[in-house]
Amino acid sequence: MARKIRLGWFSFSCCEDNTVLFAEILNDHFFMVQEKFDIIHAKVLQNVNKWEEMDVAFVEGAIANKEQEETLQKIRGLSKTLVAIGSCACTGMPSASRNNFDESTIHEIRFIKDKFNMLDKVHPLKDIVKVDMEVSGCPMDETKFLEALTAIIKMYGDL
Amino acid sequence: MHGGHDSENLELGIEGLSKVEGHMDMEVKVTRGKVEYAKLKIPEAKRFYTQAVRGRPMQAIAQLVSRICGTCSMSHIFGCTKSIEDAVGLVPSEQTMKQRRLSIWAHLIRDHPLHLYFFVLPDMFDKGSVFDFTSIEEKKIIATALEIKAAGNNLSKMVAGRSIHAPWPVLGGFTQIPDRAKYPNIIHDLEHAREHSLELLDVFYDCPWKFEHDTNYVAMVGPNFDYLSGDLVSSSGLKIEEKDFDKYAERIWKDYSTASAFLLQGKDYMVGSMSRLNLGKKYLHKQTQKDCAKQLSRFPSSNVYDNNLAQAIETIDSINQSIDVLESTDFKPEAPVQPTRKDGTGFAVVEAPRGVLYYNVAIKEGKVQSMAVAIPTGQNQVRMEKDLAEMVQEQVDAGKDKDYIVHEMEKLIRAYDPCMSCATHFLKVKWKK
Q1: Distance, CA of B213 to CA of A109 (rounded, Å)
Q2: Most buried residue, B7, B8, B83, B394, by CB count within 10 Å?
Q3: Which residues does A153 contact at the CB level (< 8 Å), separation at least 6?
Q4: Residue of A16, A101, A118 lying closest to B70 (CB–CB)
Q5: pTM over the 0.90 mark
Q6: What pLDDT digit, counting tens, does each position of B284-322 carry?
Q7: Distances (CA, A) of B129 to B117, B119, B120
């Protein structure tokens, strides 16, 4: 049996539309994913999730607090290829709306920001770690995601 | 591993509940055999959408609030739009209402099955994930589930342009109408999805899981079973005008969670699929009432796990309703209705898949002044915590071990189908310091 590709799926600050879209993409590709991939980490899909080396990590969402920053660094350390999926991961927006708030609105939200250790600014992934591929769009572009998935299969599928 | 008598003192914690939308932690503390507290913590960082909409043109914000939640985006689009239309005196056409209904039903046909087959089914088959369904029989169930979801997804594309962050709905109407040439395939797929959904219905009807609770069920129900209109009522006998929601529902702040919780007249309540069927099953499509008569006799129910059965029935109903409207409607190009004024305050309640979704918006000179949103998971939070506390107490009294109880906690909360993306947009917060 061919070696399975080790995949991780992670969400930070966002509306998780890429996860929902992935669930729709599975309508047509479920059995291919089941056959070719070993899901190491995907909290939305399974209850046993491991922090182990992965061939590919798909990451959605922007980075809004210290804990997320550290988790993203951990993911980077464990993954050979890190793919940013969706607008928030690629550009920060729209989760980074607060970066553009005026003084009085910033003052209004300060208490919550401090209470939950939020960073001063919300960041796209590439501000924090090296990103190998980007699939932009809000939600991510379905065709480009499938292209990225195909590229991953080519890179790691026949080892 | 804890033995029997060790369950006198337990700290039951789950960091990052799996198979739910978004991030939620649970914590239950048991001291000398008694549950001290049960907490549901939502640690996700807020995204402050209620602030981000301020000053923006009223026509632009439905697309922004859609981004509150990738799971429930269609409900946010129509909840927000309905509140703005109320504010500026805009009444959409009957054709627009039909297209909105189709959009919402399509949303239900793909969202309920995601919860039922990807999140709940693995627990029922004692598996960690949908990817662990590997035998021929098991794969057949998954293939069936995927077909149902796909029928909803494809219907969404035809009626709203896309299933997530749909681009066609606008204030007063739609920018495009469904392409009639696609009807035959879509209806064919929906009919298959109906057949499959009926086949799988008894998986949820026969499910032996039981947790009875005593609460107030709240839902907006009415003719068409369309999740967009009707009366907001409760099993305690209330009938609430949309503009009065804030007078009944009180926001409370849990200092361990970034999302706000709600009480109704000072008490916990439950919203969602089970509440809708408990209060409004008579409004379901005739075909649904006929085909699901046995399963519908279960409602009104106070077993939390019947929320799964209710979702399965609503999926079938949304298919029946959609086929009816498609077969009887010839959509014609129609310009969106324009607002008659640029100022006002609007209130709206819609039923998101997980329950009551409330919008309140103030518009001045065509721009958003302020907005408040109450989302279903926040409204269920207090009841979910009480359920957890009561269930854990029952299990501790029965001498169950820690691993068993933790698994039961997960199952129980999953039955509510919580959605944390929704919960962590932003509400006006006054923290108790």
Answers
A1: 37
A2: B83
A3: A5, A36
A4: A16
A5: yes
A6: 999 999 999 999 999 999 999 999 999 999 999 999 999
A7: 10, 8, 9
Tell me what ipTM this predicted complex has.
0.93
A159 falls in which pLDDT band (50, 70, 90)? low
pLDDT recorded at residue A1 = 57
Label residue B303 exposed, middle or buried (CB < 10 Å: 0-12, 13-18, 19+).
middle
B67, closest residue in chain A (CA to CA): A15
Q: Can you tell me the distance from the alpha carbon of A13 to that of B47, in angstroms, rounded to the nearest whole number?
A: 7
Largest CA distance in chain A: 61
User: Is residue B64 within 8 Å of residue A95, measured between CB atoms?
Assistant: no
pLDDT band of residue B429 (cuts 50, 70, 90) is very low
Interchain contact A138–B (C-beta under 8 A): yes
- The token duo for B83 is 């509140």
B20 vs B358, residue with greater confidence: B358
Outline where chain A has alpha helix (H).
Answer: 17-36, 66-78, 87-91, 103-115, 142-156
What b/e sequence results for B145-175 when a residue is b if at least 16 CB atoms lie within 10 Å of its CB, and e otherwise?
A: bbbbbbbbbbbbbbbbbbbbbbebbbbbbbe
Closest CA in chain A for residue B74: A17
Which residues of chain B from 144 to 203 reach within 8 Å of chain A, CB to CB?
Answer: 146-147, 149-150, 153, 163-165
Q: CB B298: neighbour CB atoms within 10 A? A: 18
Q: For residue range B135-194, what is the model confidence (pLDDT) as tens digits?
A: 999 999 999 999 999 999 999 999 999 999 999 999 999 999 999 999 999 999 999 999
Kindly tell me if the per-residue pLDDT of B76 is higher than 90.
yes
Query: Which helix or strand (DSSP H or E) is residue B279 part of?
Result: helix B273-280
Domains observed in chain B: 49-380+418-423 (1.10.645.10)
Q: Would you state the structure tokens that stand for residue B325, as one six-digit string?
A: 């409207």
Report which of B150, B187, B73, B129 is spatially closest to residue A29, judged by C-alpha positions: B150
Residue B116 DSSP code: I
Q: What is the dihedral of CA B308, B311, B315, B318, to 10 degrees?
A: 170
| Whether the Cβ atoms of residue B145 and residue B124 lie closer than 8 Å to each other | no
- What's the CA gap between B415 and B123, in Å, rounded? 11
CATH of A5-156, one of 2.60.40.10, 3.40.980.10, 3.40.50.700, 3.40.50.2300: 3.40.50.700
Does A28 sit within 8 Å of B45, measured CB to CB? Answer: no
H or E stretch at A84: strand A79-85
User: Any idea where the domains of chain A sit in the sequence?
Assistant: 5-156
Cβ separation A43–B18 shorter than 8 A: yes
Residue with token string 């239950």: B28
